[in-house]
Design brief:
The complex is a heterodimer of chains A (about 140) and B (about 150). Chain A has about 140 residues and is α+β, with helices and mostly antiparallel strands. Helices cover about 25% and strands about 45% of the residues of chain A. Chain B has a 7-stranded antiparallel β-sheet with strand order 1-7-6-5-4-3-2. Classes of the chains: A alpha+beta (about 140), B alpha+beta (about 150). Chains A and B meet through strand 1, strand 6 and strand 7 of A and strand 1, strand 6 and strand 7 of B.
């Protein structure tokens, strides 16, 4: 089982950052790597079990299922149903925690998955350094630091 | 039940912050409110169940018991056993988490307690500001001082 952990500090209150990221269909609105997204079967994007079908800017298409969403604990958990990445049992969580010292947010993004051993290092780097840190860098820009 | 949550970002890797915090008897070396501390019965400060008996600068004497300590999770928790102030059922948790973006530390310090009716605001301010916020500031100062020393070495 490979594990990815990336965390950062966003210069905005956690309720404001959460408002930006809680929409399971909203990745194109804040993540620079995502071109378009839709929720299958016309379901609301905060219905647990709904599936987002989205396309990356490089053309890759990924389908992910919403497993958990909490407006109280500020986290969102999802799994990959279909992707060209070559991962199995992929489950990821994006979690926000208020930093009481200043109006800032501690943001964590974790993933666990299985893959062939020779691809593990590359996948960890692409997912952690590319997708997750890329998302945090975008949020940091959007919230001014 | 009163619940206090304080958190901050320390501009140092978690290992350096943890080196300060994991010593349950070390708070008299960094916390400005603590004058003197000793572990009872000559036990080791990382033995679960050990009791630290310490004096604040104002002379008041407190005893706290170590409930959990994890080097893997970089967390510990403790409860108050004896105190001259009305803090009852006080259990506190300290948790460090790496900020991988910049190799910094997220430090979360929280507790729950009960107190006498009418003293809620006073106890909330004392714990949140005099103990937790002051502790954050003190560790930050000590870490930057020790960085400066390393820089000269």
């Amino acid at each position: 089982m490979a594990r990815v952990y990336v965390s950062s500090v966003i210069n905005g209150r956690s309720d404001r950052v959460w408002a930006r990221v809680r929409d399971f269909n909203g990745l194109p609105g804040w993540h620079p790597g995502i071109a378009e997204s839709r929720i299958e079967n016309g379901e609301p994007s905060d219905k647990i079990g709904c599936v987002r079908d989205f396309r990356l800017r490089n053309g890759d298409r990924i389908r992910e299922k919403l497993l958990g969403l909490s407006d109280f604990d500020l986290f969102c958990t999802y799994s990959i149903l279909e992707s060209p990445m070559g991962v199995d049992n992929y489950v990821a969580t994006l979690r926000l925690t208020p930093i009481t010292d200043g109006e800032r947010t501690f943001a964590e993004w974790t993933a666990e998955f299985d893959c062939s051993p020779e691809r593990e290092a590359e996948l960890i780097s692409n997912i952690g350094g590319g997708v997750f840190q890329g998302g945090f860098d975008a949020l940091k820009r959007q919230f001014g630091g | 039940m009163i619940r206090i949550v304080r958190s901050t970002i320390i501009d140092a890797p978690t290992d350096r912050v943890w080196a300060f915090l994991r010593d349950f008897n070390g708070h008299d070396r960094w916390h400005p409110a603590v004058a003197k501390s000793a572990i009872e019965r000559n036990q080791s400060a990382d033995k679960i169940g050990c009791v630290r008996r310490f004096f604040l600068r104002d002379g008041s004497e407190l005893r706290e018991r170590l409930l959990t300590l994890s080097d893997l999770e970089q967390t510990f928790s403790y409860c108050l056993i004896d105190t001259p102030v009305p803090l009852f059922n006080y259990v506190a948790h300290v948790r460090l988490v790496p900020v991988t973006d910049g190799d910094r530390t997220f430090w979360d310090w929280r507790c729950t307690f009960t107190t006498r009716k009418g003293q809620e605001a006073e106890m909330t301010r004392m714990v949140g500001e005099d103990i937790y916020d002051a502790g954050f500031a003190a560790v930050r100062t000590h870490l930057s001082a020790s960085s400066a020393t390393e820089g000269r070495a």
